[in-house]
């Protein structure tokens, strides 16, 4: 008989929440890692995600950066909903149609605000974007 820790059960509920996200139907993402204060998501691009130059549209990369920041913060929100209050992204390079790995790290957890840093790199390691996000804690919990 295996007994999961409360942390493992909570992270499993976050994974289920991720899998139920409607945006996954048009922006293919994979939740690769979830640890306290950290998350890693991969963007699996296809031709629908390209801009006019044939590269991944920056808005899609920004969407995944926001998501990975949210999940990094949610690992420490004790089940309470967070919403993005502020989000800033710097694009450093274009990403050709290749897998993009995003990482998020909780920088500071306050009583109502969570601050995170996020990065996006191609699978080959090219740093394509960096972002900062502030997430506001809501007074209601999500359902696993």
TrEMBL record:
Keywords: Hydrolase. The lineage of its organism: Bacteria, Pseudomonadati, Myxococcota, Myxococcia, Myxococcales. GO terms for molecular function: fatty acyl-CoA hydrolase activity. Belongs to the thioesterase PaaI family. This is Thioesterase domain-containing protein. Residues 54-127 form the Thioesterase domain. CDD domains: PaaI_thioesterase. It comes from the Bacteria.
């Amino acid at each position: 008989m295996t007994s999961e820790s409360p942390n493992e059960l909570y992270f499993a509920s976050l994974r289920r929440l991720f899998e139920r996200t409607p945006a996954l139907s048009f922006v293919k993402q994979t939740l690769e890692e979830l640890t306290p204060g950290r998350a890693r998501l991969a963007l699996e691009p296809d031709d629908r995600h390209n801009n006019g130059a044939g590269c991944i549209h920056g808005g899609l990369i920004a969407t995944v950066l926001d998501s990975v920041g949210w999940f990094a913060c949610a690992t420490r929100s004790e089940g309470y909903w967070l919403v993005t209050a502020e989000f800033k992204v710097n694009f450093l390079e274009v990403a050709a149609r290749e897998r993009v790995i995003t990482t998020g790290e909780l920088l500071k957890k306050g009583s109502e605000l969570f601050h995170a840093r996020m990065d996006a790199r191609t699978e080959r390691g090219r740093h394509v974007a960096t972002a900062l996000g502030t997430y506001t804690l809501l007074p209601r919990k999500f359902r696993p």
